[in-house]
Amino acid sequence: SAATVSLANARRVADVPARLFGSFVEHLGRCVYGGIYEPDHPTADADGFRQDVLDLVKELGVTCVRYPGGNFVSNYNWEDGTGPRDQRPVRRDLAWHTTETNQMGIDDFYRWSQKSGTEIMLAVNMGTRGLKAALDELEYVNGTAGTELADRRVKNGIEEPMDVKMWCIGNEMDGHWQVGHMSPDEYAAAVDRVAHAMKLAEPALELVACGSSSAHMPTFGEWERKVLTKAYHDVDFVSAHAYYHDHGYRTHDTIEMQDFLASAEDMNYFINTVADEADAAKAINHGSKDIAISFDEWGVWYQGRWNEQETAWAKSKNGLHHGAWPTAPHQLEDIYSAADAVVEGSLMITLLKHCDRVRSASRAQLVNVIAPIMAEPNGGAAWKQTIFYPFAEAAHYAHGDVFAPVVESPTVTTKSYGDVAAIDAVVTWDAATRSGLLLAVNRDLDAAHDVTVSLAGLPGADGAIAVTHAQVLHDDDPYRTNTADEPNAVTPADLAVSTAADGTLTFTLPAVAWTAVRFT
Ligand code: AHR
């Protein structure tokens, strides 16, 4: 059966925001320690950063990194990670029930961000702290020398202000699991005060209010309305977080897998609903600015699998204060399949199609913890998970403007979303360089589909189109993964594409597949 993707009446969505290709580094498991920072590793540089990981971060094309959490930030003292390493305190982290050595902190992360060429997006602690700590951290990070905290930064070796623009005011404060979680009214009042004061210090900051931890939280919608109505004038973004996984992975249940392949439907609903609530808050405030969405945690995460992996540790933590507080244990180290990569590719297409509203996004997370990059311990190598490829392609080649094509596709029936289009697609086109990228997925678990793409409607792209690179990620076994021993088990292969003089491309997408076609 066949699908058509037409640019003839395509909607230009917006320019591609650089921050759409962000990621997330949390003090969690081996993301920081044994991930980006491992001074004893053979590839470690003078700052203790793993060069093999840095190389893969660059190859991934990450633009912006959210730090230091996540749930971790809600019981974190930013000062603990500054100053001489041998004087930094060791503390308990309540979020992940681990020991935090503070051998990495904001100064070190700043140095890492310079080496990785990424923008920093910082989160402040609204769980155990609040206004005063946020203002102090802002002065330390961005202040010009001459005041106490800015001078402390200079003394610690960072002479210039770090110039961090984006700040998240807390993390998932609607979640009962969050240290210091709040009701919608409590958080609305708190974020309003903190955002207001931070903007007094630096009006050009871009501030992110916590939105809902998923579209299925009991306060979803009400939370966004109350928070954004109260803090409208001082916040610029509202966050959204969404994780998906195949609930039938243990038994290879086909109904669950088909549902999982359509996860982007949930993300689509989430974005549209938050946008509606943000617009309502704008109207109530008689405002002129749109509040953007920072989709600052997204990806595939097998939450149940983590508990299985960590059984011994999970049991031990139940033993009151005698439980284990390991340092940088193996936590949330999901190993991703070919199907997981297709879903992540599909989520990226959805983010691009909404980039008029979603102006920032962070795939969660970057290394070892639900991550595209794995870093083996004990001097081992770093390697790429299946999900690395769809992200890297978009990060490197989605330039210019985003166009949402008109897609006519066979449908698949899903448990949660009804009948949905098997084929989804988006196109980016850079008129200045006359280069474009088509990203598409086949979300059908069972059937291959022929796809005809008519690119003729792209502005300034009249006439013949030349394909410069075409790849497909697919495996006949959608559950196949890459591993440390076999890191190239699932990688993109060349895709055969026919081109016609009128700018039409045709190809066949196998069941459960992601594809990228670069053209000029
Ligand atoms: O990314 C893992 C966790 O997921 C983060 O700490 C938290 O914000 C979310 O619940």
From TrEMBL:
GO-annotated molecular function: alpha-L-arabinofuranosidase activity
Known EC number: 3.2.1.55
rRNA processing listed as a keyword: no
GO BP annotation list: L-arabinose metabolic process; polysaccharide catabolic process
Superkingdom of origin: Bacteria
Transmembrane portions of the chain: none
Residue ranges annotated for the Alpha-L-arabinofuranosidase C-terminal domain, each copy included: 296-513
Keyword ATP-binding included in the entry's annotation: no
InterPro entries membership: Alpha-L-AF_C, ASD1_cat, GH, Glyco_hydro_b
Swiss-Prot/TrEMBL keywords: Carbohydrate metabolism, Glycosidase, Hydrolase
SMART domains: Alpha-L-AF_C
One Pfam family here: Alpha-L-AF_C
Catalytic activity: Hydrolysis of terminal non-reducing alpha-L-arabinofuranoside residues in alpha-L-arabinosides
Family assignment from sequence similarity: Belongs to the glycosyl hydrolase 51 family.
Subunit text: Homohexamer; trimer of dimers.
Name of protein: non-reducing end alpha-L-arabinofuranosidase
Organism per entry: Bifidobacterium hapali
